[in-house]
Amino acid sequence: VSQSRYYFGTLYSDLGLGYSPLQVFLDVDTSEKITNIVSTNDALICFTQNNTIAITGTNGSNVIPSAYIQNKISKVGCINQKCAVNTELGVIFLSRSGVYFLRPVQETGAYQTVNLSLKIQRIIDSSTLKNQDVAWMTYDQAKSTVYLGISDGAYSTSCSRLLVLNLLRNSWTEYGLIS
Fold first, then answer.
1. Would 79 disulfide with which of 16, 46, 132, 169, CB 3.0-4.6 Å?
2. CB under 8 Å to 109, separation ≥6 — which residues?
3. Per-residue pLDDT reduced to its tens digit, 80-129
């Protein structure tokens, strides 16, 4: 196991000038790329294809270069940079094995990974999800709905299916798209 590097930066001056990078080293296999990063209220959630890692500050503080903690949350990762959304309940993301909900456990401060795609597993199965680079996900807060576009074709450059997750009803709807 070796380290992968990620640079995270924020603007720090009132005029919008200047850049303050944060260099984070992740303890993952060097063959794994970071596929996505989502900022939550208390952590940076870093995804590779096969892992989910939370970067938090020490003793409840913000993440700073000299003081951060990384915790491997799950051996499930996110397939690309367009397939994770931050909702008011937690982070939802698409992995090779399904759609997952990453929610904070209030009592412990840890995270729990829950599979949301059991009802549509035949569609999300890695043999069906052929072109992972085309997949995308977006969240409509007003409707509490997650939209997921995926492709059936290995060489397709556009999505052929739209899957809609209603978070209030915990229900999925599938639409076929015209290519």
1. 132
2. 42
3. 999 999 998 899 999 988 999 998 887 877 889 999 999 998 887 755 56
